[in-house]
């Protein structure tokens, strides 16, 4: 049996990320992300530098080095065993 929602899902009705309130293993955080392409939605751990605040993330931005401030969700283990961060939104 297929489930059909009463309303179509779109960016206004979907949550920005999947958060399990019973665990604190992965969470939303501010970060600087090395982003050679702005179209990517997930980033390996070595491309993400977690920051303590939005201000820290914005201050560390460097377009020449492609370091972009963002809100990310993670880290999360991929099926291949890599630790990934998922883009929630860009801050610029």
Which key phrases capture this entry?
mainly beta; 1 helix; 5 strands; globular; disordered N terminus
Describe the fold and architecture.
With 92 residues, this protein is mostly beta strands. It has a domain at 27-90. It is built from one helix and five strands. Strands 2-5-4-1-3 form a five-stranded antiparallel beta sheet. The chain is globular and about 35 Å long. The relative contact order is 0.25.
The overall pLDDT average reads: 80
Number of helices, counting only DSSP H or I runs of 4 residues or more: 1
Distance between the termini: 43 Å
In total, the number of strands is: 5
Strand % is: 35-45%
Low-confidence stretches: 1-17
Biggest sheet statistics? 5 strands, antiparallel
Percent helix among the residues? Answer: under 10%
Q: Which shape, going by the Cα principal axes?
A: globular
Radius of gyration from the CA trace?
Answer: 15 Å
Structural class: mainly beta
Provide the succession of SSEs: EEEHEE
Q: Output the strand order for the largest sheet.
A: 2-5-4-1-3
